[in-house]
Each structure stands twice: as structure tokens, then as C-alpha cells.
Design brief:
By secondary structure, the protein is α/β, with parallel strands linked by helices. It has one domain. The protein has 11 helices and 9 strands. It has a 7-stranded mixed beta sheet with strand order 1-9-8-2-5-3-4. The protein has a two-stranded antiparallel ribbon with strand order 6-7. Strand 3, helix 7 and strand 4 form a beta-alpha-beta unit.
């Protein structure tokens, strides 16, 4: 089974991009019309996030999301064979001079995207900035899938660690080496975790403390990774600072700033967020504000 999957992936990686998007159209048809993949979750999330929108508007966003999700899946496979010129053409980094400035001054940075647009092409970043690059990822229960992710994201030298292992790496990293951490902070924490809650897309939302903890260790700049989908297969990425160097007691705090930046990104074009993730599965057990201040 594993060998056949490897052969299938190898076969897909030698195909031209135009063929990938034919596959994407088929995947969209299967997910949306045949399988109904997580349709109930998607519909509930959209209604919660946009109570002001009509059912016609929500249905349009829903269908466009499934088209994008299919594109994202085939683009993740395409990542296995993409070269630098492919990335340069399709994944435009608009203000890397900001990162160059931080690197020259030895300032650590944390890049904090959401699950918006295409966050999978992170491996390309290593070739464009002068940092030791570390990405924090969640280990997959399927060992084969986990190996594929590690290979795909790490092929250009990106170091991948689970959160706690990444924190250990930070404790042992040379003080003189500017670090760039890549951390998508909008995942749902475990139900029993004691976490802050923020208001995100009209909903009380449980948030990881990881962003604040990593910043406390790195003492650098946190940059929201603002992604725009220009057209099918083409993206623009802008790095937006969420704090000033040396800023400690932040009001609003980093987590609130991050979710505000993510919400602004989503509201620009809601079609490209990961609506199939059951983000609001849990509700706060007590008053949201008291949890956030705990």
C-alpha cells in the first residue's frame, strides 16, 4: 500500500501544473457533490462567522471554498517537484526586505500565518531569507502521511519540530543565530487545556498560548503572514508586524492581535479559509473574559 502510494505521488509530481488543476476540478466534484465532505461543519462555521450574509451569499462562499480546498490539496502534492522558478512565479513574497533588515540586525522573528490560502508552500521561504528556519507542525497519526509532510516541507532545509520539541530547540540554539519560526497559531487546543479565549469571527474562540510563549523566549518580532490568492495557483504574501521590538506588556496582547489580523485577512475574501476545520467545537465553560485574564 505504501509503495503504491509513493508511486502514485511520484507519477503526479512529473505532471504539468495544468493537469494538476484538472485533477483539482475532479476532487472538488467528489468532495462537494458526491461525498459531501464536512458540509455540515462548513455550513455551521460560515453561518456563525457571517450572520449578516444571506443564504445565497453563504452558499457561494461554501462552493468556492471547496474549489479552493481541492486546489490546495493538489498544490500540496505539487510541492514535491516544484523548483525555485515555480515558486518565484506562483508564490510572490512582497516585502522580504523587512526580513532582511531583521536578519542583518540579528533579530529573531516568528512568522504566524493562519490556515488561509496556501500555507503549505512554506518550504520555499528557506531559500529567500537569511535565518535558521524552524517550522512547528502537528505530528500526524498516520506515519506515512507524517513522513510525506516532513519530506515535502523540509526538502530545502526547513527544520520541523513539534511544539514542545521546538521549544527545547530554542533553549539550546546559539544566541547569535537569528531564528525564524513558522507557527500557524489558529488551531483548536485540546478540550481540557487551560487556554485564553478571544472573540474571532463573532465567536468565543479558544486559542493556544504558544505564540506568546515563543515570543517570550525569542524576544523578537511576530509577523502575521497575510496571504492573498490572486488567481488559481498564484498567491501574494505580505509580512505584517504585530509588535515592536522590546514590547513586553502588550495591550491588546499578541494572541488578540494575531486573531484580529487573521480575521481581517479572512474578511477580505472568505473563500480561502479552512472552513472544514471544526474550530468552534468547544464552548467556554465560564465567562470568556475571566478565562482570558486567568
Amino acid at each position: 500500500m505504501r509503495l503504491s502510494l509513493r508511486l502514485m505521488i511520484w507519477f503526479l509530481t512529473v505532471l504539468p501544473f495544468s493537469f494538476f488543476y484538472r485533477i483539482s476540478t475532479f476532487v472538488y466534484f467528489m468532495m462537494y457533490y458526491i461525498l459531501g465532505y464536512r458540509k455540515e461543519v462548513v455550513c455551521n462555521n460560515l453561518r456563525k462567522a457571517f450572520p449578516e450574509k444571506s443564504e445565497i451569499e453563504l452558499k457561494y462562499i461554501k462552493k468556492e471554498f471547496y474549489k479552493h480546498l481541492a486546489d490546495y490539496l493538489v498544490e500540496a502534492v505539487a510541492n514535491f517537484h516544484m523548483n525555485v522558478s515555480d515558486f518565484d512565479a506562483r508564490y510572490k513574497l512582497t516585502n522580504t526586505e523587512l526580513l532582511d533588515h531583521y536578519a542583518r540586525d540579528g533579530i529573531n522573528v516568528i512568522l504566524a500565518p493562519g490556515h488561509y490560502g496556501n500555507w503549505e508552500w512554506v518550504s520555499y521561504l528557506v531559500l529567500k531569507i537569511n535565518f535558521t528556519c524552524v517550522a512547528i507542525y502537528k505530528k500526524q497519526s498516520n506515519k506515512f502521511v507524517d513522513e510525506l509532510i516532513l519530506h515535502s516541507r523540509g526538502k530545502y532545509g526547513l527544520l520541523l519540530y513539534q511544539y514542545h520539541d521546538a521549544y527545547k530547540y530554542l533553549l539550546s540554539a546559539p544566541e547569535t543565530a537569528p531564528l525564524c519560526l513558522y507557527f500557524a497559531a489558529d488551531q483548536r487546543p485540546a478540550r481540557k487545556a487551560k487556554v485564553p479565549w478571544v472573540t474571532f469571527l463573532n465567536q468565543p474562540t479558544a486559542a493556544f498560548r504558544g505564540l506568546e510563549n515563543l515570543h517570550a523566549k525569542t524576544q523578537g518580532i511576530v509577523l502575521y503572514v497575510h496571504i492573498r490568492k490572486v488567481k488559481r495557483g498564484f498567491y501574494e504574501v505580505e509580512f505584517r508586524p504585530l509588535n515592536k521590538l522590546g514590547e513586553v506588556d502588550m495591550v491588546p496582547d499578541l494572541i488578540e492581535r494575531y486573531f484580529e489580523a487573521l480575521e481581517n485577512n479572512i474578511r477580505e475574501d472568505p473563500r480561502y479559509y479552512l472552513w472544514s476545520h471544526n474550530r468552534w467545537k468547544f464552548t467556554p465553560p465560564v465567562d470568556v473574559k475571566s478565562i482570558h485574564e486567568a
